[in-house]
């Protein structure tokens, strides 16, 4: 179920090579940092964004409602479709249901009613035994990185393969590849404690990618990062999307959403209040 | 959905073993406590097993003896003794009747006690009764012969191995029941303590477990390192318990050879052999079950 990578580049990408490794792209200096009035990086600006993908659905929510046992409503009658190759921001205030929506996709939570289909499978019908195999086909990234402090960057990435029974011969090349994609090949032997927050998030993205999943979920990936670093990480996610991976990002970072102008799904009180193809953080 | 690969890769096996031993080492004192309680449990179980098997051994030896010992009253005239012999020989199933005089009995006792003990120093007269040793061809005859002989006027009392065997079997059962009861109660305690120890590891590794679940490790795979840790705890307890029980038995044997030479006890090697696999099996089972109980709750999706 590898996505056809050649299809991911049909949009006009003005910056020449479609997928430059991040390590080679010039890091944004402080004054080039995301300011809505500053001139944004051209290939990530609203004009450069390809049309909303019309490919097959990767994620589909069909009238999903989640009421937690505490009585708190997580989601309220949410129906949404995310197609392959899309880059989607999920925005909304804390408690709006962003994380709940993500957890439904990787089946950490089950809906109270409704259907969640991921990769064509109704996850509400998956048995507990099948869940690990669903998760090998999507990557998840968090605000707090969730790296193992006593393992190096390389070991943290390799861990995802080792614990899923990947053949030993496959581990090293796949890990190198993933670290290359996130631009951390040079720091592979550093421990998380020796890495900056941004670098740690790159390690966690590499770990999420090492299974070569067609879908990447990032739950507040920039929540712990300063604006410059946030911008780098979102650029990286954008590049990963250009390679043909569907990317779903929850955030309340207004600047990033407003610069990228990708599809924006806004949640409030567990319900979708806005879904725009080239949206901003705040609706108009 | 792709079918999962059935066999874990070599790297995964190494991971599981390394993490299992690491958990054991990291928990230091708790691991020691877990090993100790497992040891105590297994020493009790092992001791019960040894005592029961020693009794079994004795029973087996006695069952092979097809004899009824008929003790005679003191001061019988030789003619009365002869009459008794005649009547015994006439009983159905009797294949031989041997007379053991009071002097013979004393000599036998002296021989079996050994060490040149001379009872004449302490006893004014010989207290041992004269007896007939009646042999038969079938164990089934023993009770009938004993019952008949008991009614003779010359006879003081009758003893045959089957009666002893019955009493020993009852004793063996009691030892087994007591051992199983005490061992079972201790095993429960061991389960709880091993479980608490493993829970510490689960807590120390909660991020790791979380990551494993997120990247798609199966619940079985996540469980393995804890199972290894439990098995290591149980095996350590079993090893210490084995050494203790065998040393204890060797000590008892040494004492018994001197004071109870006529009791046929199994050799230390026999006991060690039987104990080794029973104790390691029980140790590992207790350890693994304890760890599975501890992990179960944390792996529920």
What does this structure look like?
The complex is a heterodimer of chains A (284) and B (301). Chain A is α/β, with parallel strands linked by helices and 284 residues long. Chain A has helices at 98-105, 131-135, 153-162, 168-181, 197-209, 227-242, 254-260, and strands at 57-67, 73-83, 87-91, 113-118, 121-122, 138-142, 215-219, 246-251, 263-268, 271-276. Chain A contains 7 helices and 10 strands. In chain A, strands 6-7-8-3-9-10 form a 6-stranded mixed β-sheet, with helices on both faces. A 4-stranded antiparallel β-sheet of chain A has the order 2-1-4-5, with helices on one face. In chain A, strand 4 (113-118) and strand 5 form a beta hairpin. The longest helix of chain A has 16 residues, at 227-242. The radius of gyration of chain A is 18 Å and the shape is globular. Mean pLDDT of chain A is 84; it is low at 1-53. Chain B is elongated, with a radius of gyration of 30 Å. The two termini of chain B are 20 Å apart. Helix content of chain B is 71%, strand content 8%. In chain B, helix 2 (28-63) packs across helix 9 (268-299) and helix 6 runs antiparallel to helix 8 (219-259). Chain B contains 9 helices and 4 strands. The model of chain B is unreliable at 1-8 (pLDDT under 50). Chain B has 301 residues and is an alpha+beta fold. Chain B has a 4-stranded antiparallel β-sheet with strand order 2-3-1-4. Chain B folds into 2 domains: 7-62 and 168-300, no CATH class; 67-160, 2-Layer Sandwich (Alpha-Beta Plaits). The interface between A and B is medium-sized, with 29 and 26 residues.
Secondary-structure blueprint:
The complex is a heterodimer of chains A (284) and B (301).
Chain A: E1 57-67, E2 73-83, E3 87-91, H1 98-105, E4 113-118, E5 121-122, H2 131-135, E6 138-142, H3 153-162, H4 168-181, H5 197-209, E7 215-219, H6 227-242, E8 246-251, H7 254-260, E9 263-268, E10 271-276
Parallel strand pairs in A: 3-8, 3-9, 6-7, 7-8
Antiparallel strand pairs in A: 1-2, 1-4, 4-5, 9-10
Chain B: H1 10-26, H2 28-63, E1 67-72, H3 78-90, E2 94-100, H4 102-113, E3 131-136, H5 142-150, E4 155-160, H6 161-204, H7 206-215, H8 219-259, H9 268-299
Helix pairs in contact in B: 1-8, 2-6, 2-8, 2-9, 6-8, 6-9, 8-9
């Amino acid at each position: 179920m590898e996505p056809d990578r050649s299809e991911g580049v049909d949009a006009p990408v003005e910056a020449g090579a479609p997928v430059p490794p991040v390590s080679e792209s010039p890091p944004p200096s402080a004054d080039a940092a995301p300011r809505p009035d500053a001139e944004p990086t051209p290939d990530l600006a609203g004009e450069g964004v390809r049309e909303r993908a019309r490919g097959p659905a990767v994620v589909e929510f069909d009238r999903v409602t989640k009421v937690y046992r505490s009585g708190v409503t997580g989601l309220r009658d949410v129906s949404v479709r995310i197609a392959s190759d899309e880059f989607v921001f999920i925005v909304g205030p804390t408690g709006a249901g962003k994380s709940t929506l993500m957890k439904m996709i990787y089946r950490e939570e089950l809906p109270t009613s409704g259907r969640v289909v991921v990769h064509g499978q109704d996850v509400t019908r998956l048995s507990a035994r099948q869940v690990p195999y669903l998760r090998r086909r999507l990557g998840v990234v968090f605000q707090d990185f969730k790296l193992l402090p006593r393992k190096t960057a390389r070991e943290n990435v390799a861990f995802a393969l080792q614990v899923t029974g990947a053949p030993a011969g496959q581990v090293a090349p796949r890990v190198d590849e993933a670290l290359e994609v996130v631009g951390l090949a040079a720091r592979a032997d550093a421990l998380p404690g020796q890495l900056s927050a941004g670098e740690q998030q790159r390690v966690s993205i590499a770990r999420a990618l090492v299974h070569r999943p067609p879908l990447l979920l990032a739950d507040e990936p920039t929540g712990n990062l300063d604006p410059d670093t946030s911008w780098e990480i979102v650029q990286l996610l954008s590049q990963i999307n250009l390679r043909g991976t569907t990317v779903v990002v929850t955030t309340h970072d207004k600047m990033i959403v407003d610069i990228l102008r990708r599809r924006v799904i806004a949640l409030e009180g567990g319900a979708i209040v806005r879904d725009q193809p080239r949206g901003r953080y705040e609706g108009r | 959905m792709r079918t999962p690969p059935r066999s874990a890769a070599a790297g995964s096996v190494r991971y599981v073993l390394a993490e299992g031993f690491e958990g054991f080492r990291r928990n230091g004192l708790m691991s020691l406590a877990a090993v100790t309680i497992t040891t105590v449990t297994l020493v009790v179980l092992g001791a019960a097993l040894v005592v029961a098997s020693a009794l079994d051994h004795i029973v087996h030896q006695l069952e092979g003896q097809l004899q009824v010992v008929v003790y005679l009253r003191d001061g019988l005239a030789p003619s009365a003794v002869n009459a008794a012999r005649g009547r015994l020989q006439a009983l159905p199933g009797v294949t031989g009747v041997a007379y053991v005089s009071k002097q013979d009995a004393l000599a036998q006792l002296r021989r079996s006690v050994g060490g040149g003990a001379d009872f004449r120093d302490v006893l004014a007269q010989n207290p041992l009764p004269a007896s007939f040793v009646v042999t038969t061809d079938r164990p089934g005859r023993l009770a009938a012969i004993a019952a008949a002989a008991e009614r003779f006027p010359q006879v003081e009392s009758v003893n045959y191995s089957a009666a002893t065997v019955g009493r020993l079997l009852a004793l063996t059962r009691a030892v087994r029941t007591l051992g199983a009861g005490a061992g079972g109660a201790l095993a429960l305690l061991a389960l709880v303590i091993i479980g608490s120890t493993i829970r510490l590891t689960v807590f120390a590794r909660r991020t790791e477990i979380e990551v494993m679940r997120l990247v798609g490790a199966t619940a079985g795979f996540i469980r393995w390192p804890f199972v290894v840790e439990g098995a290591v705890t149980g095996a350590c307890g079993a090893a210490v318990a084995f050494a203790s029980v065998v040393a204890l038995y060797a000590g008892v044997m040494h004492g018994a050879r001197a004071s109870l030479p006529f009791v046929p006890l199994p050799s230390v090697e026999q006991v060690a052999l039987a104990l080794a696999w029973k104790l390691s099996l029980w140790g590992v089972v207790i350890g693994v079950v304890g760890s599975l109980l501890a992990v179960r709750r944390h792996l529920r999706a």
